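Section 3.1 - Work completed
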Amino acid sequence: MMFDERLPTHLWVSAGLARCSGDGVPAMVVRKGDPHGGLVLVRIDHLDGHTQLLGQERDIEGALTWRVICEDKPGEEPTTFAYIDRATKRDPDLWVIDIEDRQGRNPFD
């Protein structure tokens, strides 16, 4: 039997939310996906009109990394919500986390 050493998604999402809470950073699960292996999108609102949407990737060694999928900038047409809508229709196991942080920190990084 193969053993996967990765933590179930629901556990590390809970840990990231606890980190946010401890730092006084508002964060919430907008959409719950598969508790064991769902991918995660993190939407970070910088509270100045700038928003980033980050998606998970695994590098060649299997380590979790993050990349900016799209950004909303002040005065431009928003794209993050449309991307989230399309992505959740394609992947019912997807998690979506919203964070409000002026510094743009990703607690899952």
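Second construct:
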Amino acid sequence: MAPQSSMLHIRVDDNTKEQATEALASMGMSVSDAVRLFLHRVVADQAFPIELKVPNAETRLAMKEARTKMAARRPRFENADALFDDLKKNRRK
């Protein structure tokens, strides 16, 4: 006798659903197959099957700096030559 099953409802934006559906179809899976596989891995491993990490202090500082620069909406370099010079200088480090 097959085990009883339950319906699971989730919300995801249409674009993500469409892209995931296409990607999974190319692997021969449906979204439902992928969710079932995900949940089976949670049960089998007793862990979240995707590695999640809290960023360390250095990474958090870099993220904060990047957000500040993006919010300022100014170029970091005065021109392309300055950018390339910086890239060349830092490549040697």
